[in-house]
Design a protein that fits this description.
It contains 1 helix and 14 strands. By secondary structure, it is mostly beta strands.
Length: 174
């Protein structure tokens, strides 16, 4: 299922795992102090394939399908972000890797916040970036809401969803 590269004191070891579960890991050497014990979780990565579209105040910018599971990206301050499950930001990163768009996020104490797509930043005139999954407004940060295979995600820049009753949908399937 996976491996763990573990460093304790001056030694390094690679540990293979053949099934999911919780494992205690520590280093021990005769006549030495045991390293701090860590508990790790081994889980299979779940890959999803989703449809997405991006709108800027009603104007269609992009509509595609992407597949992804985990991702590595950076926020606008250059901080590394590693996500190991299929969440909303994965749609943007998969699309970026396909050359379809660029995006910017900022990492806060509460989570990741989407601040721009293709250079279009949130502002007082045009509104903020919002998202819907399967027609439902999502107010979780983009690194929290977990997606499922076949979900339809719409990113749009506009008014706060409470001021807008419109459900966004797909014009056509690709």
């Amino acid at each position: 299922v996976g491996t763990l590269k573990y460093t304790a004191f001056s030694g390094k070891v690679t540990i293979p795992f053949n099934q999911k579960g919780l494992y205690p890991v520590y280093a021990e050497k005769k006549g030495a102090i045991r390293s701090p014990k860590k508990t790790i979780t081994i889980a299979e990565l779940r890959k999803v394939k989703v449809n997405f579209r991006i709108e800027d105040n009603g104007r269609l910018l992009c509509q595609e399908k992407v597949s992804f599971s985990s991702l590595k990206t950076r926020d606008i301050n250059g901080r590394a972000i590693n996500i190991k499950r299929p969440v909303i930001i994965g749609v943007l990163e998969a699309a970026r890797l396909k050359g379809l768009l660029s995006y910017r996020v900022i990492q806060t104490a509460e989570g990741l916040i989407l601040v721009a797509i293709n250079g279009l930043a949130e502002n007082n005139k045009d509104g903020s970036w919002w998202y819907q999954v399967n027609g439902k407004h999502i107010f979780d940060d983009i690194d929290e809401y977990e997606l499922n295979d076949g979900d339809r995600i719409v990113f749009y820049r506009g008014k706060h969803p409470s001021k807008e009753k419109k459900e966004r949908s797909f014009v056509s399937e690709k």
